[in-house]
Amino acid sequence: MDFEITIIGSGVVGSVLASLLATQGVEVCLIDRQDPFKNNKLSKLLGRTSALNLASIGLLNKLEIWNNLSGGSTDFERIYVWDSEGSSKLVFSAEDIEKKKLGSVISNNYILKEVLGILKRTENIELKFNRTLKDISVDDNSVQVITEDEEKITSKLLVGADGSMSMVRKLSQIPTRTWSYDQTAFVTSLKSENPHESTAWQIFTPSGPIALLPFDQENKGNISLVWSEDNESAERIKSLDDNNFTFELEKRTESILGDFELKDEVRFFPLNQLHAKHYFSNRQLLIGDAAHTIHPLAGQGLNLGLSDVLSLYTILLSARRKGDDIGANKTLLNYENSRKIPNLTMTVMMELFKQGFGNSSPWITLGRNTAFMVTQESAWLKKKFIKEAAGLT
Q1: Topology, domain 5-74+104-178+272-357
Q2: What number of other Cβ atoms are within 10 A of residue 126's Cβ?
Q3: How confident is the model at residue 181 (pLDDT cuts 50, 70, 90)?
Q4: pLDDT in tens, 322-342
Q5: Tens of pLDDT along 30-56?
Q6: What is the CATH architecture of 181-271+361-390?
Q7: What are the structural domain ranges in the chain?
C-alpha cells in the first residue's frame, strides 16, 4: 500500500482535508492536474472570494492558520437583505446570537496560499502535481489511481475533491442530478461611495440576486460583488463598458452604497446546480463541489465544502483509531449520512429562494413581504436563521 488516502484536487477543500489528515499522522497523496504553487503567484487578494461562516473559520483555526489569514479578511457583523419588488427587509446581526461577527470575507487564493505552506512542510504528504487522472481500479482491500503518464498509486481510500467537473465522479460512475439555473454570475471588486458598515448587503431582484460583500483591499476596493442575472439580460450586461456596468449596478441596488468604481476586471460564469445521488462507491468518495454545487445567492458553497471536510476528517480518524477499514462502505456511509441531508436541505432552500424571488406574481410578492416581516419580528426565528448561516446548528 503506497498511502492510506489519495486525494484528487488541491483546491481549498482538498488541500484543507489533506493538511488536517496529515497533521494527525495519516499518509496522504495529493494529486492535481495543475501546480497550485504556480497558480498562487497571483495576488492573495485577487480571484474569487468567499463569505466564510463561523464554523469554517473554526476549521481553519484547527490548522492554526486563521491568525495569519485574518489580516487579509474583512469581518461582517450584519446581513441586510431586501426585496426590490416589496417594502420588507431583513437584518441579521451578530448581536442576535451573542457573537462579535457573523463571518469573514476572504479571497480563496489567500486561504490556499496558507494551506499550501502546510502541505509543503508536512512530511507525510506527498504532492503529485501536473498529473492528470486517467483511470481507477478497485479491489477488496485497496483502490488504485492511474495517471496519464501511467503512474500507479494505491491507497485504502480515494477522495474526489476535484470540483464540479470531477473526473473521480465520472470514473466512479456516480450518478448526479443536475440542471442549469439559466443565470450568469458576475464577480468583481468595487470601491463604493458609502462605507460598507461591516455589513453583507443582498438585494433580490426579479432577474436575480445581487450580493455586495465587505472586502477591504489595501485602500483599493472595499466591496466584493456577486451578481446573478438571468441569461437573457446577462448578455446585454456583458456588452456594457465599465461606466455603464457600474451605473446599471447602482440602479439595481437602489444606490444603497452610493456610486461604484470598478477595481478589477469583471468575470462571469454560468450557474448550474449539481448533486451526486451517492457520495461514495467502492472506496471512492466525493466532497465539496465534486458532490454538490449550489446557487451562490447565500454564499454557502465553500462553507458546505468545508463542512464536508470536518465531517469526513472526524469520521476517518474515529474509524482509524478503532482499527476499522477507512475505505469500507460502513465508514463511507457514515460520512454520506452526516452530510447528504444538510447539503440537500441547503440546495432545496436555494432553489426555493431563486424560484420565489424570480416570480412577479402579486400573491408571491405579498407572501415574500409577509415572510420577511414575520422573520424580522420573531427573535426566535431570526436566531435560528442566523445560526444556520453561521454554521452553528
Answers
A1: FAD/NAD(P)-binding domain (3.50.50)
A2: 18
A3: confident
A4: 999 999 999 999 999 999 988
A5: 999 988 877 655 444 456 789 999 999
A6: 2-Layer Sandwich (3.30)
A7: 5-74+104-178+272-357, 181-271+361-390
The predicted-structure confidence for 274-322, as pLDDT tens digits, reads as follows: 899 999 999 999 999 999 988 776 667 899 999 999 999 999 999 999 9
How far is the C-alpha of 307 from the C-alpha of 302, rounded, in Å? 8
CA 336 to chain centre: 18
Count Cβ atoms within 10 A of the Cβ of residue 354 and give its class: 0-12 exposed, 13-18 middle, 19 or more buried: buried
Does the pTM of the predicted model rise above 0.85? yes
| Count of all residues that appear for the chain in the document | 393
Q: What Cα–Cα distance (Å) separates residue 43 from each residue in 39, 191, 218?
A: 10, 18, 12
Per the CB < 8 A criterion, the answer to whether 19 and 118 are in contact is yes
Residue 265: how many CB atoms within 10 A of its CB? 10
Amino acid found at 324: D
